[in-house]
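COMPLEX REQUEST
Ligand: adenosine-5'-tetraphosphate
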Amino acid sequence: MTDTKFTPRVFSGIQPSGNLTLGNYLGAVRRFVEMQNTGIETIYCMVDLHAITVWQDPADLRQRTRELAAAYLACGLDPQKSILFNQSQVPAHAQLGWLLNCVTRLGWMNRMTQFKDKAGKNAEKMSLGLYAYPSLMAADILAYKATHVPVGEDQKQHVELTRDIANKFNHDYKVDFFPEPEPIIDGAGTRVMSLRDGTKKMSKSDPSDLSRINMMDDADTIAKKIRKAKTDPEPLPDNLDDLAGRPEARNLINIYAGISDQTPEAVIAQVAGQQFGQFKPLLADLAVAHLSPIADEMRRLMNDVTEIDRILGDGANRAAEIAEPILADAYDIVGFVRSR
Ligand code: AQP
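STATUS: Structure written out below.
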């Protein structure tokens, strides 16, 4: 339930940890743009502090942060309407992050499935930052007292943890200070799966480039990746129930639905009976028509990184104006002496 005493405010972010994928676009950026246009205050971040929880080459990180900013702009985010910035330029994220580390319980962190997925059998070799990632994410959201967080399905658990952290802070200090933000998880693209394995999430950091469509891929590459996407020999059925046990087929239907902004039910009704030899070219044409103009605009914007940096700096100033007083109040609540 939304806390009505808090002004509605949207916050979300994406890591500049690789090429932006179709999954990030359908699960997150498209929702960001929709929310921007509802009139609610919207704050969107390139979460570079999160990106370095796993190794990032410094030059690549700089380039990817700017590319992600270009993607935000090319997809329709408007720096006049939304606050766009990279996280490291607003120190309040890390500062509030520390406070929340001291509120968050280890038992809660041990339940986070994303850490388990990313660490696999190598947990001992992972950074402390990767483990603490969800509590920094809570700080990202709560530094703005954001009430709504558009994310893909995989981030739902982290937003729920943010609610627990906000609630515990309020309870421990006997205040009604932080809202309990709600995840906004909408549409057919909330969990886009790998093109090589329909049981695995499409991810920027998957070692196989064939597993994902990158927003900067050219038309031939998109068509090739869809052509090579794993499928099965059966034709498409006329209802979604009959796709149970066919995760790759279900994923391609979902992707078609996500891009064309239809329900998967509507798509399956249109393509019932088709073999993948028929359906894949339709999907490739749709993806190329939708994504190519975005990639062209990203390339155009990347020709002027000075302008991108200016937008990020301006956004960071506006973000800091909101976050700093909230952080100062949190410091007072905790009992820190502030005398300068
Ligand atoms: N496959 C996906 N389908 C739908 N939504 C997705 N998101 C990510 N993958 C999919 C959503 O994109 C937003 C940004 O994600 P992130 O960069 O913060 O980290 P992530 O969820 O870990 O995404 P990746 O692509 O898998 O990055 P890496 O490989 O670096 O870890 C979030 O809203 C997420 O839900």
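REMARKS: The mean pLDDT is 96. The two ends are 39 Å apart (CA to CA).
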